[in-house]
Amino acid sequence: MKVDADYTPKPYEQWRASDWPRTYLARGFDNIWAVGIAFAPPHQISRPRSSPNGTVIAPAPPRTGMPSGVMGRLAAESIADRISDPAAKPREASMAAMGAACVASAGTGLRSGSAAAMTMMPIVPDYATYRTGRDLADTRGELGLAGHWVKLMLHHLFLHKAKGRLGWQFIPE
Ligand SMILES: Cc1cc2nc3c(=O)[nH]c(=O)nc-3n(C[C@H](O)[C@H](O)[C@H](O)COP(=O)(O)OP(=O)(O)OC[C@H]3O[C@@H](n4cnc5c(N)ncnc54)[C@H](O)[C@@H]3O)c2cc1C
Q1: Are residues 133 and 164 in the same domain?
Q2: Residue nearest to atom 53 of ligand 1 (CA)
Q3: What one-character DSSP code corresponds to residue 63?
Q4: Strand ordering across the sheet containing 140-144
Q5: Best of 3, 35, 37, 118 for a ligand 1 pocket test (most atoms within 8 Å of beta carbon)
Q6: CA distance readout (Å), 46 to 6, 84, 107, 115, 139
Q7: What mean pLDDT do residues 49-72 have?
Q8: Domain residue limits at 54
Q9: Of all protein residues, whose CA lies closest to atom 15 belonging to ligand 1?
Q10: In this structure, are residues 123 and 62 in contact, taking their beta carbons and an 8 Å threshold?
Q11: CA dist., res. 31 & res. 41, Å (int)
Q12: Are residues 16 and 75 in the same domain?
C-alpha cells in the first residue's frame, strides 16, 4: 500500500532520505497503517545498475524482521494513542533514521557454528547527514562463531516474545 512517502518518480541523484515514510499511514485513509512488507517503498535504496549483458541490478529495499517489528510496534502505539486521544499525532519511525541488525546463519553447532552478523545505521542511506550515507561507527559486519550464538539466543528470545511469556515486553524487536 502507498503510505506517507514521496512517490514522485525521479532520478537516483534526486533520491532523498526524506522520501521514505515516517508514520506508515495509508494514503487517503487516516485509520489504516501499512508496515513491514505491506508498505510500498518510494524507490530502491541503492543506485540501480546493470550487468555487462544488460541485466538490471536494482537492489530492493530490505524490510527485514527488525524494522518490520519496530514499525509494527509504532503503528500499534499510534492506534493506542488515538483511542485515548482522537487528536493524537501518529508516531514516526523512518527507515532513513532507524538502524537494523541482521544475523544470517552459515552453519550450526555450539562450537563449530557460524553466522554473518551485520548492523546498519541508518537502513536507508542518508547522504545529507553522513558522507558515505551511513554512520560507519554503527555499520559493521562480522562472520564467525559469535554470530551463531547470537542467532541461537535471538531464536529463543523471539519465540518467548511471540508467545507472550513472562517479561516478553522487555525483549526488543
Ligand atoms: C526465508 C526467509 C528468511 C529470512 N531471514 C531473515 C533474517 O534472518 N533476518 C531478518 O531480519 N529478516 C529475515 N527475513 C525477512 C523477514 O522475515 C520479513 O521481513 C518479516 O517477517 C516481514 O514482516 P511482516 O510482518 O511485514 O510480514 P510477514 O511476517 O510476512 O507477516 C504477514 C502476515 O500476514 C498474514 N496474512 C497475509 N494475508 C492475510 C490476510 N488476507 N488476512 C490475514 N492475514 C494475512 C500472513 O500469514 C503473515 O503471518 C527472512 C525472510 C524469509 C522469507
Answers
A1: yes
A2: 64
A3: -
A4: 100-105, 115-120, 140-144
A5: 37
A6: 17, 40, 29, 25, 16
A7: 88
A8: 1-96
A9: 64
A10: yes
A11: 20
A12: yes
